[in-house]
Amino acid sequence: MAEFVPVGKRRRRLAFGRVKDLVDLPDLIEVQRNSYRWFFQKDVDPDRREAMGLQELFREIFPIESYDGSFALEFFRFYIDPPTTSEEESRQRDLTWQMPVRATIRLVNRKTSEIKEEEIFLGDFPVMTDRGTFIINGTERVVVNQLARSAGVYLSADTSVPGQESFACKVIPDRGAWLEFDLTPGDVLSVNIDNRKKIPATTFLKAFGVPGDDEILRLFGAREIEVDLIEEEVRGRLLAEAIVGEAGDVLLARNDRVTKEHFDRLVEMGRTRLRIWDVDPALAATLERDNTTNSDEALLDLFRRLRPNEPARMENAREYIHGLFFDSRRYNLGRVGRYKLNRRLNLDFDLSERLLRIEDIVSMIKAMLALRSGRERPDDIDHLGNRRVRAVGELLQNQVRIGLLRMERIAKERMTTLPNLEKATAKDLINVRPISASLREFFGSGQLSQFMDQTNPLAEITHRRRLSALGPGGLSRERAGFEARDVHYTHYGRVCPIETPEGPNIGLVTSLATYSRVNEFGFLVTPRRKVVDGRVSDEIVFLSADEEDSFYVARANTPVAPDGQILAEVADRVYVRYRDDIEEVTPDKIDFLDVSPKQIVSVSTALIPFLEHDDANRALMGSNMQRQAVPLIQAEAPRVGTGMEARIAKDSGSCIVARRSGVVSYVDSERIEISTDDGGVDQYRLIKFRRSNQGTIIHQKPLVRHGDHVERSEVIVDGQSVDEAELALGRNVLVAFVPWEGYNYEDAILLSERLVKEDFYTSIHIEEYEVEARDTKLGPEEITRDIPNVGEDALRDLDENGIVRVGAEVGAGDILVGKVTPKGESDQTPEEKLLRAIFGEKAREVRDTSLRVPHGEGGKIVAIKRLTRELNGEDMSPGVNEVVKVYVAQLRKITVGDKMAGRHGNKGVVSRILPVEDMPYLPDGTSADIVLNPLGVPSRMNLGQVLETIMGFVAVQNDWYVSTPVFEGAQEKEIFEELAKLSKSHPELTRDGRTTLYDGRTGEPMENKVTVGYMYMLKLIHLVDDKIHARSIGPYSLITQQPLGGKAQFGGQRFGEMEVWALEGYGASHILQEMLTVKSDDIRGRLKTYERIVKGQNLTKPGVPESFRVLVKELQGLGLDVEIGYDDGSFGELIVEEDEPEASFRPKRIPPRESDVVSAADEEPDEEEKGLLQKLFPVSTVTDEMIFGSDNEPEPSDEKDDDSEGADA
């Protein structure tokens, strides 16, 4: 039965879990931390480091020898220095938080035996924070774990066409050439090196070092036997003797294959018995195709096939094959590759043996022959025994290897080119730039180094536990088929079958299961309880996917007697998993038990109560949407949780944990001091109002009081979205499932005004705006308060430097940072130049390029960050003198258009906010907070939300917090028992949790009883304030001259093909013509339209759209002669008369009569109007002549923009 368990210092939860977790959850971000530790071995003495990570790389690359071997650079040891800046300083100054790495290198002159030893700086390596992240250029980033195909050997069979079966065996090394053995329908064994020409496998074996055919046959266990000369017995077999004619001539050589003609000849000779080899026919067929007799011939044959354009000399061939397979720097199976080869082929080589051996190749061919005969099974490449995790350390190692190899090449070149090498030092030979460049590339722009998702603590922790099949050496979205994306039986307990994106990455990006770990070889392992003779022991074993394939495993909640004896479920049998099947076996056959029911799912999915009652597709949405929940200003833990909330909050890194036990001696909102039990004092600084990568807030508040005693690793500070050390992504609200006037049609959500007034769903968002002062060709830009043509009112909140003050309220269009840019001046006459030279420089003309608040934005200035070249010299981009960042905070209440969701994939958009008095209410007068549509439940099959609602009602009425873990939570029976107890105080409640609801507007009871209860609802980051957008005039695309698209570009709404059909359907031809011309890309037309609207005149006819001109030019680019047909029947190029205001779609080629010409403007505009129009329309599209019909050549406008701006009605 359920019992209360303490959670944190001041809360207890009623826990319904029936399986006691024997194993604690592992540290949820240990994958990241362990991998980085493996790479650096920072805590190991430099002289005692094992050959792994960075140490392995140095051992691999060094010694670097000159081409003549007289000089060598040798690696001795490397040191890691402390970071030059603190984490916080790196954040503030937009730096990378990194630590210098030095190495002791010796330059050895082998002629004189002289040794010069010195320390060399190898570069700055980014430091991993204690949260498993990196600070790169001031922003937090995560290196995602890659789930890639493991090095090793893979058997495959293609039996799709009967009679045309083929079998293959592929060796994938860690580095080097791929090797694929084929067994084709003709029974010939061939080998393919790096997808080049196929060669007989026996030729390859000889080139690899087997002397001749007899030795090859013996390697495969062939025996010489004597048989009667019967055609069926000897035809196609290999002779084990030479057949000599009467004249002493050799008729058939040893190891020849017996054909029909050979058999007839032998019969003629009177032979009755024959010595043959007892060997697989495939080997016989292969030897027949093999024209070589010994290793040297095989080497030359192989070289000719692989390098047909090079002279086939023996030394060349030897050197080439040696480089291909016997040079450990070019070919390396890797530790994992050797481990997989040993396991798959039942070999027993040491894991330090990283090259292919003849025994490996023989075993592979034997395995392939066994596959053909059905004694072996083909390998499944999606099996987790064949896919391994490359975490940050290994990914970094592969990247640094590239840098070190470049460094090695440069060092070798310098050894050759330096004039007096005897006087040189290691510093002169080693260039460390390639290492820094490879690190920058990896962390800055690598596919697996990602901008961290910091929407809330759950998003952070999930991002660090993510597994991606994409990235270098992995799959690509386009190539990945259904099998690579599908859930595999080996995912059980290792990879979450639920949490994955819904888009093109579905199944390629997944998440680690809760108890999953990575073993020393990079394979995912999961804990199991050992079962001995049908009795469960407390021994825990971590099993990888291929180890588990040979065991029967029962689920965690299999019935077990108090003494540990497994109880039968169905007729003295128990359900177990065996490979990809569910079987029934007797208890004594069971090998292992799962450790926990939540072992199957990821941390995000483990937060969904009653997950077992939800459809998997909706659970997927629920898992993903919890990561999008915005931190609210009043965090509230869920009444109905799963027991995972506290652990996630603690491991996410958003809380602060006590380093040592002691007593709190000082606490305020920014600092906590603890007098530790061992006499020291620990200080903790809290983060206040910091902006996250997603613009949400990172904020901490103390959880302890003065005088409290705290234990080591106890949570002492709550982060954002954390309440009493438990994850708190949303709020518990009273929901009613009832349709309401169509306002909750199609999943829309009806909200009570109480939630807005009481700030239930209010969140703080901080936006960052940045401006750079650069050097331009005309002089440096300047950050200043002195801005041309700007009134004092617009400058009221700027300080003397032109930067807005902290605390100011700003709205759209307000200046945040005043900046002026030098303006180009027209060419001066010689006289002007002379006068300028005599009387000195006049004040330069500048234009206003200030940073302003964009459309629809605004808020309160909370921080300013100013970076100058004096402070951040070498870390600033070239040409940038100063960077100013302004942080603007907004308090966003929930509003119509915001997206909300529950934890079961039940999402919707707020459609209306009703006054409290109009909301439906319970018999006791309590108004519902949210009204949801009951039709959103049955077809979605996420009934977990209904059970959560009823359980939530019980919990609130009893003032409980409930923990109902996934797959072992509260049963319906238990919930309804608690409901029955409540019916004494709530007589209107039915047995299934429904009650009479009253219409708030009329006071009438609703026709049917309604399910009402408390549900945990989240506000998601898809906020209407970030999405709402409108445009009248804005930028146009340079080529097509059509308005740009999207809010970020301040673009228009696309009127696409289908929208055109709609207008065609209505016959709205004039609207359609406007849409496709003057509202889009008819340049002259839109200018004239704007001008006429301004003047209140009638509009002109549209002209030729720019897209038509682009089409004409593209056709001409293809070499087609495009001519335009005119009204007068003539043909020619497209000509638009500039003076003709009403250019039609079919322009006249003959100049019009004077009587037809109408002045474009009835009256000459005044200077103010002229200036306004010139500001609105840049020179790339407008001239005075186009607008005013003037004959004078206009002067070019000073106002120039990157993109033409103009009227977009």
From TrEMBL:
<dbReference type="InterPro" id="IPR019462">
    <property type="entry name" value="DNA-dir_RNA_pol_bsu_external_1"/>
</dbReference>
<feature type="domain" description="RNA polymerase Rpb2">
    <location>
        <begin position="1051"/>
        <end position="1124"/>
    </location>
</feature>
<dbReference type="InterPro" id="IPR037033">
    <property type="entry name" value="DNA-dir_RNAP_su2_hyb_sf"/>
</dbReference>
<dbReference type="InterPro" id="IPR007644">
    <property type="entry name" value="RNA_pol_bsu_protrusion"/>
</dbReference>
<dbReference type="Pfam" id="PF04563">
    <property type="entry name" value="RNA_pol_Rpb2_1"/>
</dbReference>
<dbReference type="InterPro" id="IPR007120">
    <property type="entry name" value="DNA-dir_RNAP_su2_dom"/>
</dbReference>
<dbReference type="Pfam" id="PF04565">
    <property type="entry name" value="RNA_pol_Rpb2_3"/>
</dbReference>
<dbReference type="GO" id="GO:0003677">
    <property type="term" value="F:DNA binding"/>
</dbReference>
<dbReference type="InterPro" id="IPR037034">
    <property type="entry name" value="RNA_pol_Rpb2_2_sf"/>
</dbReference>
<feature type="compositionally biased region" description="Acidic residues">
    <location>
        <begin position="1192"/>
        <end position="1209"/>
    </location>
</feature>
<feature type="domain" description="DNA-directed RNA polymerase beta subunit external 1">
    <location>
        <begin position="529"/>
        <end position="596"/>
    </location>
</feature>
<dbReference type="InterPro" id="IPR042107">
    <property type="entry name" value="DNA-dir_RNA_pol_bsu_ext_1_sf"/>
</dbReference>
<keyword id="KW-0548">Nucleotidyltransferase</keyword>
<comment type="subunit">
    <text>The RNAP catalytic core consists of 2 alpha, 1 beta, 1 beta' and 1 omega subunit. When a sigma factor is associated with the core the holoenzyme is formed, which can initiate transcription.</text>
</comment>
<keyword id="KW-0240">DNA-directed RNA polymerase</keyword>
<feature type="domain" description="DNA-directed RNA polymerase subunit 2 hybrid-binding">
    <location>
        <begin position="657"/>
        <end position="1049"/>
    </location>
</feature>
<dbReference type="Pfam" id="PF04561">
    <property type="entry name" value="RNA_pol_Rpb2_2"/>
</dbReference>
<comment type="similarity">
    <text>Belongs to the RNA polymerase beta chain family.</text>
</comment>
<feature type="domain" description="RNA polymerase Rpb2">
    <location>
        <begin position="151"/>
        <end position="219"/>
    </location>
</feature>
<dbReference type="InterPro" id="IPR007642">
    <property type="entry name" value="RNA_pol_Rpb2_2"/>
</dbReference>
<dbReference type="InterPro" id="IPR014724">
    <property type="entry name" value="RNA_pol_RPB2_OB-fold"/>
</dbReference>
<dbReference type="Pfam" id="PF00562">
    <property type="entry name" value="RNA_pol_Rpb2_6"/>
</dbReference>
<dbReference type="InterPro" id="IPR015712">
    <property type="entry name" value="DNA-dir_RNA_pol_su2"/>
</dbReference>
<feature type="domain" description="RNA polymerase Rpb2">
    <location>
        <begin position="282"/>
        <end position="390"/>
    </location>
</feature>
<dbReference type="InterPro" id="IPR010243">
    <property type="entry name" value="RNA_pol_bsu_bac"/>
</dbReference>
<dbReference type="InterPro" id="IPR007645">
    <property type="entry name" value="RNA_pol_Rpb2_3"/>
</dbReference>
<keyword id="KW-0808">Transferase</keyword>
<dbReference type="InterPro" id="IPR007641">
    <property type="entry name" value="RNA_pol_Rpb2_7"/>
</dbReference>
<feature type="region of interest" description="Disordered">
    <location>
        <begin position="1139"/>
        <end position="1209"/>
    </location>
</feature>
<dbReference type="GO" id="GO:0000428">
    <property type="term" value="C:DNA-directed RNA polymerase complex"/>
</dbReference>
<feature type="domain" description="RNA polymerase beta subunit protrusion">
    <location>
        <begin position="28"/>
        <end position="436"/>
    </location>
</feature>
<dbReference type="Pfam" id="PF10385">
    <property type="entry name" value="RNA_pol_Rpb2_45"/>
</dbReference>
<dbReference type="InterPro" id="IPR007121">
    <property type="entry name" value="RNA_pol_bsu_CS"/>
</dbReference>
<keyword id="KW-0804">Transcription</keyword>
<dbReference type="GO" id="GO:0006351">
    <property type="term" value="P:DNA-templated transcription"/>
</dbReference>
<dbReference type="Pfam" id="PF04560">
    <property type="entry name" value="RNA_pol_Rpb2_7"/>
</dbReference>
<dbReference type="GO" id="GO:0032549">
    <property type="term" value="F:ribonucleoside binding"/>
</dbReference>
<feature type="domain" description="RNA polymerase Rpb2">
    <location>
        <begin position="450"/>
        <end position="518"/>
    </location>
</feature>
<comment type="function">
    <text>DNA-dependent RNA polymerase catalyzes the transcription of DNA into RNA using the four ribonucleoside triphosphates as substrates.</text>
</comment>
<dbReference type="GO" id="GO:0003899">
    <property type="term" value="F:DNA-directed RNA polymerase activity"/>
</dbReference>
<protein>
    <recommendedName>
        <fullName>DNA-directed RNA polymerase subunit beta</fullName>
        <ecNumber>2.7.7.6</ecNumber>
    </recommendedName>
</protein>
